[in-house]
Amino acid sequence: MTAFSTLNVLPPAQLTNLNELGYLTMTPVQAAALPAILAGKDVRVQAKTGSGKTAAFGLGLLQQIDASLFQTQALVLCPTRELGGSGGR
After folding, report:
1. Contacts of residue 26, Cβ cutoff 8 Å, sequence gap at least 6
2. What residue stretch is flagged as signal peptide (predicted)?
3. Is the dihedral of CA 3, 41, 50, 76 positive or negative?
């Protein structure tokens, strides 16, 4: 498994938070998708529930948000209740 720190773009505070939440290494889905997501590319990921898709997209989204701007910067669509539950955490 690959550590999140190998991505070399996540801020130290975010890496600390990931570690505190128990996310020590990326899942195979995250390792495959995150480099493209963080590079700003459009990606489509198809994998089983619990594979880390939501975290991968969430981390990519956080990198694009400017916390100093008090305005809508992103929209997350969750097509099912199952995804809505994981997307809201």
Report:
1. 1, 2, 3, 4, 34, 52
2. none
3. positive
- Rounded distance between C-alpha atoms, residue 37 and residue 80, angstroms: 22
Residue 71 lies in a domain: no
Number of compact structural domains in the chain: 1
In which domain, by residue range, is 35 found? 2-64
Query: pTM for the complete prediction?
Result: 0.79
26 within some domain: yes
In angstroms, the first-to-last Cα distance of the chain is 24
Residue 34's Cβ-count burial label (10 Å; 0-12, 13-18, 19+) is: buried
Residue 77 lies in a domain: no
DSSP 26: E
Report pLDDT for 31: 96
